[in-house]
Amino acid sequence: MSKKVHVFNAGPCLLPQSAIDNTIEALRDFSGTGVSLLSISHRTKEWDAVMDETRALWKELLHIPDTHEVVFLGGGASLQFLYVAMNFLEKKAAYLDTGVWAHKALVEAQGIGEAYAIACSKDKNYSYIPKGFDIPADLDYLHVTTNNTIYGTEIHEDLDCPCPLIADMSSDIMSRPVDVSKYDLIYGGAQKNVGPAGVIFAIVRKDALGRVSRHIPTMLDYRTHVDKLSMFNTPPVFAIYVMNQTLHWIKDQGGVEAIYKRNLAKAELLYGEIDRNSLFTGTAAKEDRSIMNVCFVMAPGKEELQDAFMAYAKECGMVGVKGHRSVGGFRASLYNACSLEDVQALVDCMKEFEKQNA
Question: Could you report the per-residue pLDDT of 204-262, keeping only the tens digit for each?
């Protein structure tokens, strides 16, 4: 019998078992067609039904107003960095620089027009979210990255912004309630909370499009994909189907509001142990700690135990707790499908390691 494993990968994420099982069945026979999901034509009524339902689930779960549309695209969130600037940057935009991905988004925009960092937390290795900065009302948009996977920081509330607001929510979408009406665009990769790698979501305010004077290549124009309901070209069929099944699971759990309560409980449990345990210390400012990506290191004077803990955690069935290569240490990603039991198992592992090395 195989050992029980507990998956804390930063992405691709742990997916709900029901989504995996239902996808396996669809690989054999999609929607009673006798054709595998991998071979189905995207121009069939059965696939149209999946696309329609997936959009409807997004709108239901996040209470998306009629002013916005949801589209599904390829290319990853990194390509969205370019989409954002192409579609929204006319004169000047500002970016909140809170980590590697936020900075990459800024650099991409600077290749299109005038864009600058309105505030930055690099001075303390991105361990906090800047606050108290002034936001000019005449900006084309302010771009924020709401959760920073590498450093374990998160913006916990929707900002009140005098200019259009755009957010990369790759790693915390569907983990907490969001007031979509405050944003002109929310985008991200699916592979953290809402599906496998291979598809991105974009929730775009429809009347915010078409305002820039530049020519936008067809495939980089959000209007193309809004008008064609994400079917201008062949969509990433497999990834969208898995997303559909993952959204069904979220709904079955009680929706985003119920998921949020569970995510808070998981984060509280793990941060509580990090703060209590004499061998570990957190790396993010406490008020900005992410509920999705919990980053920590060995306590001062205990650094020589790092490799030993990694080995012990592996023996205990912990998967994916190694920190990002750029910062080291440890990281446990508590995405939606990660259970409270998984987190308790990690906490028990940390407690036992402390006993052995006190």
Answer: 999 999 999 999 999 999 999 999 999 999 999 999 999 999 999 999 999 999 999 99
Task: Produce one character per residue of 113-131: b if its CB has 16 or more CB atoms within 10 Å, e if not.
Answer: bebebbbbbeeeebbbbee
Instruction: Identify whether residues 94 and 218 lie together within a single domain.
Output: yes
Total count of domains within the chain: 2
Specify the amino acid at residue 120: C
Asked if residue 176 is part of any domain, the answer here is yes
Active-site residues: which are they?
101, 168, 192
User: Do residues 198 and 328 share a domain?
Assistant: no
Helix, strand, coil shares of the chain, percent, nearest 5, are 40, 15, 40
CA–CA separation, 100 and 120 (whole Å): 11
Read off the pLDDT of residues 129-181 as tens digits, 9 standing for 90 and up: 999 999 999 999 999 999 999 999 999 999 999 999 999 999 999 999 999 99
Q: End of a domain among 232, 252, 272?
A: 252
Does one domain contain both 27 and 167? yes
CATH number for the domain that contains residue 325: 3.90.1150.10
Across the range 270-281, mean pLDDT stands at 98
Q: Which residues of 162-231 form beta strands (DSSP E)? A: 165-168, 185-189, 200-205
Sign of CA dihedral 106, 94, 72, 147: positive
| Domain range for 277 | 255-357
The answer to whether the beta carbons of residues 355 and 181 sit under 8 Å apart is no
Whether 259 and 233 share a structural domain: no
Share above pLDDT 70 across residues of the chain, in percent, rounded to a whole number: 99
The DSSP string of 166-179 is EEE-TTTTTSS---
CA angle 31, 32, 37 (to 5 degrees): 50
Residue 148: strand pairing partners: 153
Q: Is 72 helix (H, G, I), strand (E, B) or coil?
A: strand
Q: Are residues 98 and 156 in the same domain?
A: yes
Last residue of a domain, one of 217, 252, 287: 252
Overall average pLDDT of the 179-196 stretch: 97
1 part of a folded domain: no
